[in-house]
């Protein structure tokens, strides 16, 4: 049966977002290593110059928007300095996620599906998530006066990232709009526990 993405007469992808959506359908179906740039160009009905203008490379399709998501997180953290440190972290994660979803609504979760499931990307995925977690850790360190490599800021970054990924995985199993309130609720026990620790209260 002919794929709906490659059927004859399909109009060419006219935007970066449309081509990205097609690319992630192929990546999910065939895997990162087996998906060629030519396959993406053929499915999208675009030429090499268009694809390279949008993404630069196959890696750019996968990682470009992830890197922009980290920048959105950094920006949201900078804008949240008036709140207590862990409330600021939770707010920034939710806000930056909203912005990332709005930037690529059709391919946003497909990107996570590819990164989370494709063995060929496992090492790079882990490295990129470390950058995400370290962004949170550095912010927590700056707000608390602790060293960025100290145990508490490192634990904050790791725990927030783990809770975040758990919610993303849950969302990928559903065929319904994402609920950002659910993300806030999932992060709250983690951020509240660390805020209590930072405040010097007994967590038992």
From TrEMBL:
| Single Gene Ontology MF annotation | transcription cis-regulatory region binding
What's the protein called, per UniProt?
TetR family transcriptional regulator
Q: Which organism is it from?
A: Streptomyces violaceusniger
Question: One Pfam family this chain carries?
Answer: TetR_N
What PROSITE patterns does the database record attribute to this sequence?
HTH_TETR_2 (PS50977)
| Residues annotated as domain HTH tetR-type | 13-73
For this protein, the record's SUPFAM superfamilies field holds: Homeodomain-like
Start-end of DNA-binding region: 36-55
Q: Which PANTHER family match?
A: HTH-TYPE TRANSCRIPTIONAL REGULATOR RUTR, MYCOFACTOCIN BIOSYNTHESIS TRANSCRIPTIONAL REGULATOR MFTR-RELATED
Alphabetically ordered keywords of this record: DNA-binding, Transcription, Transcription regulation
